[in-house]
Amino acid sequence: MQVASMHFKERASERLNDEVLRANLGKIKGKFVANRKRSLSELDDFEATRDAGRAIRQRALDDLDVWLESFEASATARGAKVLFAQTPAEINKLVLDIAARHGVRKIIKSKSMVSEESALDHAIEGAGLTVVETDLGEYILQINDYEPPSHIIGPALHKTKEEVAELFHRKHGTPKKDVIEDLCLEARGVLREHYLTADMGISGGNFFVAETGSVVLVTNEGNATLTTTLPKVHVAISGIEKIVPTLEDVATLMRLLPRSATGQSISNYVDILTGPRGAGEFHGVDHMYFIVVDSGRSEVLGSEVREALRCIRCGACMNHCPVYQNIGGHSYGWVYPGPIGSILTPMYVGLENALDLPQASTMCNQCGVVCPVRIPLPDLQRKLREREFAEDLRPWYERAAVRLWAWAACRPALYALGTRIGVRVLRTLAGPDGMIHRLPLFGAGWTTGRDMPAPAGRTFRELYAKRGGTSR
Amino acid sequence: MRVGFFVTCLVDLMRPSVGFAALKLLEAGGADVYVPSGQTCCGQPAYNSGDRADTIALARKLVEEFEGCDYLVAPSGSCSGMIRTHYPELFADDPAMLARVQALCARTHELTDFLVNVLHVTRVPGQFRGRITYHDSCAGLREMGVKAQPRALLATMPGVELAEMAECEMCCGFGGTFSIKFGDISARLADNKCQHVQNAGVDAVVLGDLGCMLNIEGRLRRRGDAKTQVLHIAEVLAGEDKS
């Protein structure tokens, strides 16, 4: 996908004023947040389950090379082919090679965020083949001229029912509907035809299981089941970090994933697919492929933000993020929005292309406390801020201001003098209401949308000394 | 009991009255309060700007100033959280300093937590009459576990009626330099908070951190609300005049 993360500020500002988007985003709290909270109460000990989830994911990452080899051996033994993609371009090439080998004309896809990284749909269409997204949200975006997803589990949640109705009416040439169920039925009717005529199905992969060589798919619409069993070829695409050692581990992670994502005890469908159809088996594809994607992940693994790879893509961090809740996913400018995106995007597309993302957080840590695998998201954002600072990627005046202030704060006498002058100057800027309505220079960032309560005009330490307060 | 009072840079600069209110509460609770005169800032602005070297210098300075005390108390969840939650990580490669830091961390408290859990205060000197709501500041809540403590103290004041607002644990949007770098997002978050404050129909919104205080008060006034008071918990508990 094209990277627009360098324009975060402008994109976010535009969206702050989008009243329709605001109303749509408002539903996140009522739906995802409230349902998650309710579903967690079913677990005897959510915090212990989080610990277990964290441990499983960390164990996989600590010896990832071993688990990858183990996965490759298991999957191969079950008759699947395991391919590795180093770059986004390689994902697309591998898919097109497989399609050519099997004479594929039409491809259906269930949801895969990794395929968004490589803009796979465009590559498929560029090769003259047909591709149809079958996840309802992804389908809506596809027929809307490939609008980018705005959320990792609800890709079209920024859209209203009315917008979708209008889109279907325009693209399907059908009468406009105003009931959600009718819209779903209409999409189902269109997609049914494609399921039956497609030659190849592409899915993502919530987990790759090393023990069994399986891919696990967690969905609600049943589209992944059809996508991965009706055509003769199935290609499962996911990142190297999605390996988990055993099926037992998947069971534990499944206690966390649907609850953290949508607040469901279990998703409507959980597919565990192992190899192509064997002798005497009724269901399954003739050919099964795995494309295991690096594309920046091994670099993350060797970096100071490696813990981000524990992510199981539940979306809880963005659902609970006050910033995401107010600007939506498109502001972040690439595949993964919200707190986790603020770490992954700079790592995958280059920090210099996403400078604002690690800064775009109040560090409130609401994301950190909801993350089912305990990724310390604000700490990782700070690590990237440290990198930006060390590599001179912040504006010079910002660096200078921090350094000058810190230099003074290490020199109490100088600091005392500077602050005494500072508070007096600021005091003179206040109106009769005790508020500063306009601050100069960088301070304007504050006063554009708020007043600044003026300082009292004397520092605490000054007043304390005057009162004869003892020290030392 | 020698209690080192960490004023915090924002209280020092913006609202000295909060510092004096906190002193009054600590002394009323029986603490022997000591205010190191050379103190400045815990280093959080540098830390969250990615300036690690300067953060370490400021952290070292603060540890030296306060490690002789039995406790360190700050009228801020954010600054006490910086010390207790983040200082150890800064000295992970320096075992000698790390041991000193950890020893201080164990004795570092946010003001209301100290009053309730160490001094076991059950009566406060302040007088306040009115309906208030409490905003849970992020670091106080999620780093220092401050939730019940301020409410317990407010409950000892007969004139106070506590009315919880919606989303009292939601960030107000301050976020340190975030408030300037992303002023419009920050102001929107503050606006959401102000809406909840106003919906609660209170005389005052009370909180435990200066950053949130400036942010919420600034946005309330810009919205045209000149009436709803924005008070630090220490000001309410000690009954100090705001000026």
Which key phrases capture this entry?
heterodimer; A: 472 residues; alpha/beta; Rossmann fold; 3 domains; 6-stranded parallel sheet; 4-stranded mixed sheet; 11% strand; elongated; B: 243 residues; 2 domains; 4-stranded parallel sheet; 8 strands; 51% helix; globular
Brief account:
The complex is a heterodimer of chains A (472) and B (243). Chain A is α/β, with parallel strands linked by helices and 472 residues long. Chain A folds into three domains: 294 residues, NagB/RpiA/CoA transferase-like (Rossmann fold, 3-Layer(aba) Sandwich), CATH 3.40.50; 81 residues, no CATH class; 71 residues, no CATH class.
Averaging pLDDT over every residue of chain B, what do you get?
96
Low-confidence stretches of chain B: none
Gyration radius of chain A, rounded? 26 Å
Strand and helix order of chain B: EHHEHHEHHEHEHHEHHEHEH
Q: Might you state the CATH topology name of the largest domain in chain B?
A: Rossmann fold
Q: Please state roughly what percent of the residues of chain B sit in beta strands, choosing from under 5%, 5-15%, 15-25%, 25-35%, 35-45% or over 45%.
A: 5-15%
Structure class of chain B: alpha/beta
Question: Topology, please?
Answer:
The complex is a heterodimer of chains A (472) and B (243).
Chain A: H1 8-16, H2 19-40, H3 46-62, H4 64-77, E1 81-85, H5 88-101, E2 106-109, H6 113-117, H7 120-126, E3 130-133, H8 136-143, H9 161-172, H10 180-197, E4 200-203, E5 207-209, E6 214-219, H11 223-229, E7 233-239, E8 243-244, H12 247-261, E9 269-273, E10 287-293, H13 297-301, H14 316-319, H15 322-327, H16 338-349, H17 366-370, H18 377-390, H19 396-409, H20 412-428, E11 435-436, H21 444-447, E12 452-453, H22 460-466
Parallel strand pairs in A: 1-10, 2-3, 2-4, 4-7, 5-8, 7-10
Antiparallel strand pairs in A: 5-6, 6-9, 11-12
Chain B: E1 2-5, H1 9-13, H2 16-28, E2 32-34, H3 44-48, H4 52-66, E3 71-74, H5 77-90, H6 95-105, E4 108-110, H7 111-117, E5 130-134, H8 138-142, H9 148-155, E6 160-162, H10 178-181, H11 183-199, E7 204-207, H12 210-222, E8 229-232, H13 233-238
Parallel strand pairs in B: 1-2, 1-3, 3-4, 5-6, 5-7, 7-8
Helix pairs in contact in B: 5-6, 7-9, 11-12
